[in-house]
Automatic annotation (TrEMBL), chain A:
GO molecular function: electron transfer activity; heme binding; metal ion binding
Signal is among the record's keywords: no
Residue stretches making up the Cytochrome c domain: 62-152
Alphabetical UniProt keywords: Heme, Iron, Metal-binding
Protein name: Cytochrome c
InterPro entries referenced in this protein's UniProt entry, alphabetically: Cyt_c-like_dom, Cyt_c-like_dom_sf
UniProt-listed SUPFAM superfamilies: Cytochrome c
The keyword Coiled coil belongs to this UniProt entry's keyword annotation: no
From TrEMBL, chain B:
Alphabetized CDD domains for the sequence: N2OR_C (cd04223)
Identification of the protein by name: Sec-dependent nitrous-oxide reductase
Organism: Flavisolibacter ginsenosidimutans
Keywords of this entry: Copper, Metal-binding, Oxidoreductase
Keyword check for Magnesium: no
Pfam families: nos_propeller
Keyword Endoplasmic reticulum on entry: no
Gene: nosZ
Source taxon at top rank: Bacteria
Length: 154, 672
C-alpha cells in the first residue's frame, strides 16, 4: 500500500489514481473503473514547456514575498538558501544552473521529471529522497521561482 | 467398562458429534463452480467494483473490503482506540471516545447505514452503532474517518440501530435493554421489571449539509427489547418498523422466559405523526446526560460536549403514533423490500417467514382491526397485516435483503444457508449452503430502493475447517455468491477482521472519486501547528512543555531537545509538512505510556509524554517514509526535577554546550 520504497528505487509513476472523477454511476451502465480514473491530471501537474515561463525585469516584489512564505512552509525543511545540501540541494545559484521550466516542472511535475530527465535522476541518486510533491500549483511555483531569483541576487 | 461397551459408547459419541455437526452443510468443494476464481479475481493494478463496508463487531471498528476480490483495504476505528492510526490515543482524538461515563476505549459495533437520498445510497456518510455504551457514530466516506459520535440517553445495549430513512431525515436507535429511564430512580429491585423498566427509540437527525447529528426526539415504549429495524420507503416512507422480543417482560433466563409466547411484535412507528406531535408541543424536555463529540477537520481536533436535555414523546399522549404487529417467535430482522410495500419479519425460532403488507396494515388501522392492546398500544390482528408466509424456508431465519428483481434472500442461521424466494408468490427458488452459521447478509444496495443485485455476501459466525487454524481463535469470515443468474453460486471465501455483523456495499466509483488525499497545510488551524520549520519551537509553561515539531522526509525538527525535567509533561505536537498522498509520518518516544501517533500529510497530532526517569529518550518516525527513514530520529534529554539545564532545541547544529546553563527560563534556538 505504501508507495514509498519501491517508488524510490524505481522512480516509476504509480500515481494513476488521481482526482475528480465526476461521474456518478447509474444502474444500467457498465462501469469501467480503470477508464474512470485515467487522464485525471493532478491540479498542479501539467508539463511546462520551454517558453511557457516569462522572466520579467525587475523582479515582481509581491511574488518574491509570497514565494518566500511558500518557501518557509513547504520548502525550507529540505532546501537551504546557501549552497549547502540538506535533504535536497541548496538553492544558491539554482536559477543559473537550471532553466525556469526545469525548476517549475521539478516542483509541479516531479513524476515526469524523475521518469525522463537525466539531471533529475542524477539528483535522486545523490539525495536518495524523492523531491516530494508539495502540492504547489504553477502560479505558486512561479512565485517561488521569483524568490529564488531574488536569492540569487537578481 | 468392557471393550465392547466402550466401543458402543464411543460410537454413540461419534453419532452424537455427527448430529451436532449435521446442521453444517457438506461438500464445500462441490459447491464451488469452475469459473468461480475468474469471477472473484481482480488482477494486480485493477480496482474492485464495490466497496464493502463491514462491521467489525466486538472490535468496535469497520472493515473496508473490495468486492469481488475480498481484499481488505482499511480498518476504520470508531468506538475503539486504534494501534494503527493513534485514534483514541492522540490528544486530538481522545475526546471522540468520551461519554457520560467517562472515557470508554472499546465498544461493540454491530450495524451500519449508508446515507441515502431518494431511497438510494448517496455515498456521503456511514452511520454505525456502539452497542454497549449506547452511541451512534458518523464516518465521513471521503476520509474513512470517524467524524462524530453522539451518545444515546435512556438506552442500554443500542442494538436496534442505526437504520436510516430514505432521505436521511433520521437515523434511528432502539434500545435493546429496557431499563429504568435516566431521570427515574434506578435503584429498584430487578424483579420489579414490569413496573419500572421502559424502552425508548431515538430519532437522530443528521444535518443535511454537514451531517452533524442531534437527537430530534425519543419515543417512550413498553419495556420490551428492541432488536433491529428498517425504515419504510416509497409508499411506506414516514414509517419505521422495529422488531421486538421479550414481550413477556422477563428479567431472568430470557433464553426460556422470553421465548414463552407464540408471537412477539414488530412495532410500527408513524414518525410523520410524531413530528406533528412535536410541533403541537407534546414533546417533554427531560433531564439526561450524554456526550456529543465532533471532530473538526480544520483544527484536526475533537471536542466533547456534555448535553443535558432530550425531548421525549409518550405514546399515551400521542395516539395513532405506535402500533404493534404480532410476529412469530422472537423476530430478529425486519426488512422492507425496495418498493416499501412488504415488511419481512424473521422469527429466529419460527419455521416460516411472515411477510406483512403495508397497504393491509393501513387498512387494518383505518378499520381498527385490532387484537386488543399492549400497554395501551393497539395490536393489529396478525391476519389483517399479513400478506403471506414463506413456508419451510429453512431453520433460524435472521435477515433479508433484496435484489431489485422481485426476489428476497434470507439468511438461515441454524441451517447455515441463504434462501432465495420470490416476494410476490412467496415460493422458495433456490438455496445455497454457507460455511457456517450465517448471521447477516448483504447485497450491494440491498436495503435501498434500488439494489444492484449482482452479489450476495454471507457473514458467518463459524469458520471451523475453512482456514488454516491459528490457535484457539479462528478467523471470522465472509462468503461471496454470484446472484446474477437463477442459481446462487459461491465464488469466494474471505476472512474478516473482527466479527462481521451487518455490512453494506456501494459502487466503488461513488466513493473513489472523492477521496481526500492530503490536508492542506495552509488550512491547518491546529492551535499548535508549525507551518514550516521556521515555526518549530519548544515552549515551557510551568510543568507543561509544548514541542511544536515538524516531520518531512527524512527528519524531525527539532531533533535535539534539552531542558525537560522530571515532573514535566511534554506534548509533542507533530505537524506533517508533506503535501503528497500516502506519505504519513509516525512518532514514538521511548517509555511513552500512552501510544504512538500517525500523522497524515498536512495534519497535526499530539502525543502526551510524562518522563519517568532521568536520561536520554530517543524518538523516531514509525512509518517507513523514505530511504533515509531509519535516520528520521532524535533525542530528548530529561534532567532531574529542579535542574537548571536550559531549554534548548535544534536540528542540524546543537550549540547546547555554549548555552548559558544557569538560564533555564529562556528558550534558545539554534536553527539549521
Ligand atoms: Cu517518516
Amino acid at each position: 500500500m505504501k508507495t514509498k520504497l519501491s517508488l524510490l528505487l524505481f522512480f516509476f509513476s504509480a500515481f494513476m489514481i488521481e482526482s475528480c472523477v465526476s461521474k456518478t454511476p447509474t444502474h444500467k451502465e457498465k462501469l469501467d473503473l480503470q477508464e474512470l480514473t485515467k487522464n485525471q491530471p493532478e491540479e498542479h501537474g501539467a508539463e511546462v514547456k520551454p517558453g511557457d515561463i516569462q522572466l520579467t525585469y525587475p523582479l515582481n516584489d509581491q511574488w518574491v514575498t509570497e514565494g518566500k512564505s511558500i518557501y518557509d512552509v513547504k520548502c525550507s525543511s529540505c532546501h537551504k538558501l546557501t549552497d549547502e545540501k540538506l535533504v535536497g540541494p541548496g538553492w544558491k545559484g539554482v536559477t543559473k544552473r537550471r532553466s525556469p521550466e526545469w525548476i517549475i516542472n521539478m516542483v509541479t511535475n516531479v513524476d515526469m521529471m524523475l521518469e525522463k530527465d537525466p539531471v533529475a535522476q542524477r539528483l535522486l541518486e545523490d539525495c536518495l529522497v524523492r523531491m516530494p510533491n508539495q502540492n504547489l500549483n504553477r502560479d505558486e511555483a512561479r512565485k517561488v521561482l521569483e524568490f529564488q531569483r531574488k536569492n540569487d541576487g537578481e | 467398562m468392557s471393550h465392547r461397551k466402550l466401543m458402543a459408547s464411543l460410537a454413540l459419541t461419534a453419532v452424537a458429534a455427527g448430529a451436532l455437526y449435521s446442521c453444517k452443510p457438506k461438500g464445500a468443494q462441490a459447491a464451488v463452480s469452475g469459473d468461480a476464481a475468474e469471477k472473484a479475481y481482480v488482477a494486480p493494478g485493477k480496482y474492485d467494483e464495490f466497496y464493502n463496508i463491514v462491521s467489525g463487531g466486538f472490535n468496535g471498528q469497520l472493515g473496508i473490503y473490495g468486492i469481488p476480490s475480498g481484499r481488505l483495504f482499511r480498518v476504520v476505528p470508531v468506538f475503539s482506540q486504534s494501534t494503527e492510526s493513534g485514534y483514541g490515543f492522540s490528544e486530538e482524538t481522545k475526546p471522540m471516545l468520551n461519554t457520560s461515563h467517562g472515557f470508554v476505549p472499546w465498544d461493540d459495533l454491530h450495524h451500519l447505514a449508508i446515507s441515502e437520498t431518494n431511497g438510494e445510497h448517496d455515498g456521503r456518510w456511514v452511520f454505525v452503532n456502539g452497542n454497549n455504551t449506547p452511541r451512534i457514530a458518523r464516518i465521513d466516506l471521503s476520509t474513512f474517518r470517524t467524524a462524530e459520535i453522539i451518545e444515546i440517553p435512556n438506552s442500554a445495549g443500542n442494538h436496534s440501530s442505526p437504520f436510516i430513512t430514505e432521505n436521511s431525515e433520521y437515523v434511528v436507535a432502539g434500545t435493546r435493554f429496557s431499563v429504568p429511564l435516566d431521570d427515574q430512580n434506578g435503584d429498584v429491585p430487578i424483579n420489579t421489571y414490569k413496573q419500572n423498566f421502559r424502552g425508548t427509540v431515538s430519532f437522530i437527525h443528521p444535518d443535511p449539509t454537514t451531517g452533524n447529528m442531534s437527537i430530534a426526539f425519543q419515543i417512550k415504549t413498553p419495556g420490551v427489547n428492541f432488536d433491529l429495524a428498517r425504515a419504510g420507503k416509497g409508499k411506506s416512507h414516514g414509517w419505521m418498523f422495529f422488531s421486538c422480543y421479550n414481550t413477556e417482560k422477563a428479567n431472568t433466563l430470557l433464553e426460556v422466559n422470553a421465548s414463552a409466547k407464540d408471537k412477539d411484535f414488530i412495532m410500527a412507528v408513524n414518525w410523520k405523526k410524531a413530528e406533528e406531535y412535536l410541533k403541537a408541543g407534546k414533546g417533554k424536555k427531560e433531564a439526561v446526560k450524554y456526550a456529543h463529540n465532533v471532530y473538526n477537520e480544520s483544527t484536526h481536533t475533537a471536542t466533547s460536549t456534555m448535553m443535558n436535555e432530550v425531548t421525549t414523546l409518550d405514546p399515551k399522549e400521542c395516539p395513532d403514533m405506535l402500533y404493534f404487529i404480532p410476529c412469530p417467535k422472537s423476530p430478529h430482522g425486519c426488512d422492507t423490500d425496495p418498493t416499501g410495500e412488504y415488511i419481512v419479519g424473521s422469527g429466529k425460532l419460527a419455521a416460516l417467514i411472515p411477510v406483512f403488507s403495508f397497504t393491509k396494515i393501513q387498512q387494518a388501522i383505518a378499520n381498527k382491526t385490532y387484537d386488543g392492546d399492549y400497554d395501551g398500544i393497539p395490536v393489529i390482528k396478525y391476519d389483517a397485516a399479513l400478506y403471506g408466509e414463506v413456508q419451510k424456508p429453512g431453520l433460524g431465519p435472521l435477515h433479508t435483503e433484496f435484489d431489485g428483481k422481485g426476489n428476497a434472500y434470507t439468511s438461515m442461521f441454524v441451517s447455515s444457508e441463504i434462501v432465495k424466494w420470490n416476494i410476490k408468490d412467496l415460493k422458495v427458488l433456490d438455496r445455497v449452503p454457507t460455511y457456517y452459521s450465517i448471521g447477516h447478509l448483504s447485497i450491494p444496495g440491498g436495503p435501498t430502493a434500488k439494489p444492484y443485485g449482482k452479489y450476495v455476501i454471507a457473514y458467518n459466525k463459524i469458520t471451523k475447517d475453512r482456514y488454516l487454524p491459528t490457535g484457539p481463535e479462528l478467523t471470522q469470515s465472509a462468503q461471496l455468491y454470484d446472484i446474477s443468474g437463477d442459481k446462487m453460486k459461491l465464488i469466494l471465501d474471505f476472512p474478516t477482521n473482527g466479527e462481521p455483523h451487518y455490512a453494506e456495499a456501494i459502487p466503488a466509483s461513488m466513493l473513489m472519486s472523492k477521496q481526500r488525499k492530503i490536508y492542506k497545510i495552509e488550512e491547518n488551524m491546529h492551535p499548535f501547528v508549525a507551518k514550516g520549520e521556521g515555526q518549530t519551537k519548544v515552549v515551557r509553561n510551568g510543568n507543561r512543555v509544548d514541542v511544536y515539531m515538524t516531520a518531512i522526509r527524512s527528519h524531525l525538527t527539532p531533533d535535539n531537545i534539552e531542558g525537560v525535567k522530571i515532573g514535566d509533561e511534554v506534548f509533542f505536537h507533530v505537524t506533517n509538512l508533506e503535501q503528497d498522498w500516502d506519505v504519513p509520518h509516525g512518532f514514538a518516544v521511548k517509555g511513552a505510556n500512552n501510544a504512538e501517533i500517525l500523522i497524515m500529510p498536512g495534519e497535526t497530532q499530539t502525543l502526551a509524554f510524562k518522563p519517568d526517569r532521568v536520561g536520554i529518550f530517543p524518538f523516531y518516525c514509525t512509518d517507513f517514509c523514505s530511504a533515509l527513514h531509519q535516520e528520521m530520529q532524535g533525542y530528548l534529554r530529561v534532567s532531574p526535577a529542579g535542574s537548571n539545564v536550559a531549554l534548548l532545541f535544534s536540528t542540524g547544529k546543537n550549540n547546547g554546550a555554549t548555552a548559558n546553563p544557569a538560564d533555564s527560563s529562556k528558550a534558545k534556538t539554534t536553527k539549521p
